[in-house]
Amino acid sequence: MTHRPVLKVENLQTRFKSVQRGKFVHAVDDVSIELYPGEIVGLVGESGCGKSTLGRTIVGLEKATSGRVLLDGVDLSTLSGAALRDSRRALQYVFQDPYSSLNDRQTVGEALDEALQIDGIRSRADRDRRTKELLDQVGLADVVKDRHTRELSGGQRQRVAIARSLAVNPRVLICDEPVSALDLSIRAQVMNLFLRLQKDLGVACLFIAHDLELVRQAASRVYVMYLGKIVEHGPSQELYDHPSHPYSQMLLASVPEANPIAERQRKVPLMVGEVPSPTNPPSGCRFRTRCPMAVDDCRQQVPPALKLSPGHDAACVFAKDLHRGKRSALLEADANAERVGALVPS
Amino acid sequence: MHDEPLLSVSNLTVDLLTAKSAIRPVDGVSYTVRQGECLAIVGESGSGKTVMNFAPLGLMPTGVTTSLSGSVRFGGRELIGLPEPEIRKIRGKSIGFIFQDPMSALNPVRRIGRQIAEMAELHLDMTPRAAEARALELVKLVGISDPVARLRQYPHELSGGLRQRIVIATALAGEPKLLIADEPTTALDVTVQAQILRLLKDLQRRLNMAMVLITHDMGVVAGAADNIVVMYAARAAERGPVDKVLVTPRHPYTRGLINAIPKREDPIGSQFRGLPGIPPTLGAPFKGCAFAPRCDFAVPTCTASRPPLVPSADGSVFVACPVVNEGRAAA
């Protein structure tokens, strides 16, 4: 592993004006992450936790309120004009839905050609050669070039979208749920494509997803996000084996088993309350309002990230106990003692 | 035990005709659902799993001519050929629906209480006042805290999980005997999904309802269903109890699907297991097995004629694969 991150995000904050006057939606709050060349890093969390906003802020689709995004050590906010455009090209985004991210009226060849023109390749022959190369890289036959994108299946479309983002030789791909719109049998093919691109081209990839098992297998490291903040970060195997934040524990325990016998015996974590509004996040630890372990300290101050093992840290005052194998009380609840039981009218 | 299952579908074929094309999204599918039982229908997009459930109840987009053959018996009544006014009395009353996206299933400009009460008024002939009381009961039933306040809220004020609970309450308002849930947790987060599934399971048991669960997620099937039908390209590939089909899948497609689920033991950075090729597009019915082009076990007979569903030795699992049924592939 190279020891200089290709992408470094420092204390990034993205706020949106709320519909309530004078208030702000704290979508991303004081987030720092790093990506090394040729690495797939997972970013997981529930919808509304700010993971997409983080991705969009990194590539410049949203404006950061404060904090820095550094590409190869260069702060993007200090750049302008051609220099900024050059850097932006090194950061590409793959969207979730390949049905809306491609122009239906273009053929695959036209879609790729457009990207190549933007990259500044003047000669038609060069562009054609590169189109062929790109299609080959994403595992599509050359004949697809003359088909309209609307004629393709979801998996094929996502490959075209990936080819298009690769056209400008990016160093970093931000992939926002790139396979969740695809059928199960096709997902593996596209996931394997990402693994191969990472190996062959050395592209670093921030993989935003809610499918925890998928992320575990693909990513070397994982960040867990809750309500705008990173709550835990670590090497995938370590984090999945020893989740050390009550939220990560709960998230991992929620994944259903495909084996019916194991699934019936599984203890389902009971959620306390609702995700609080990011307009008015709780003081101190943001998870404290739903955390079964919360103590007074959690209200007072934002828990610092505690180092648990090399590269593994969690922002919880109990992280060390949890890392040693203590399970959050949330998981002790029996599946059969479902909360609704008490609420059913006789 | 009743003699006849609550829902009995046999040899159902659906043909859809639009101005430009004719497709057959459902081709000779049979299954039954008994009272208090949950059947999962699993398949990829375009496999016909949704059309199969909605077409017999007249829930099809406009501009499409639907032609049905075969039989769909519900509570001893044949639904195919039933005039629309008759179907309307069943739809939403004895058969409740839950759709994938809770936001578009609710009216954004009406209060939640009214939307639930409306169903009770329409189907149970309740007075508005009685229906409001019923709405409150239902909202409590689906495990929503502070129910009185919730009834006065609008859908956009609630989270996805709460909205889906409201949709479930609405579906239950007509006191259905059968609940058809089309991907009820797909739009929800994994933590919320677990709760909604437990809720559905719990309600089903409590109200002794039958449920048809349409999904593509094997984890959802494992936790909720008793039986499963695996659909591939308009036809049933495999059918049987979940404890058998998910644990020892027999059809090569079912095996591929289950094998494709990432496992905790898979090393990091290892290849993902999937199925080769892409699912076929629906058009004219296939002559042989539609899965044959993607199948590792395919033999010439597979493409020659349509493989029939053959019961396993103990009669519990039905598989449409000539190779499996001849016992030539590993079980």
Class of secondary structure makeup of chain A = alpha/beta
Mean pLDDT of chain B: 89
Outline of chain B, from the CA principal axes?
globular
Helix content of chain B: 25-40%
Q: What is the SS-derived class of chain B? A: alpha/beta
What does this entry look like structurally?
The complex is a heterodimer of chains A (346) and B (331). Among the domains of chain A are: 7-90 and 170-219, Rossmann fold; 243-341, no CATH class. Chain A is 32% helix and 21% strand. Chain A has 12 helices and 12 strands. Chain A has helices at 51-59, 81-89, 108-118, 124-137, 154-166, 184-201, 212-218, 236-241, 246-253, 260-265, 296-300, 319-323; strands spanning 7-17, 24-35, 40-44, 66-71, 74-75, 91-94, 172-176, 204-209, 221-226, 229-235, 306-309, 312-314. Chain A has an 8-stranded mixed β-sheet, with helices on both faces. Chain A has a 4-stranded antiparallel β-sheet with strand order 2-1-4-5. Chain A is globular and about 65 Å long. Residues 333-346 of chain A have low confidence and may be disordered. Chain B is of the alpha/beta class. Helix content of chain B is 33%, strand content 22%. Chain B has 13 helices and 12 strands. Chain B has helices at residues 49-54, 84-90, 102-105, 112-124, 128-141, 147-151, 160-172, 190-207, 218-224, 242-245, 252-259, 300-304, 322-325; strands spanning 7-17, 22-33, 38-42, 65-74, 77-78, 95-98, 178-182, 210-215, 227-232, 235-241, 310-311, 318-319. In chain B, a hairpin with a 6-residue loop joins strand 11 and strand 12. In chain B, helix 4 (112-124) packs across helix 5. The longest helix of chain B has 18 residues, at 190-207. The relative contact order of chain B is 0.14. Chains A and B meet through helix 5, helix 6, helix 7, helix 8 and helix 10 of A and helix 5, helix 7, helix 8, helix 9 and helix 11 of B.
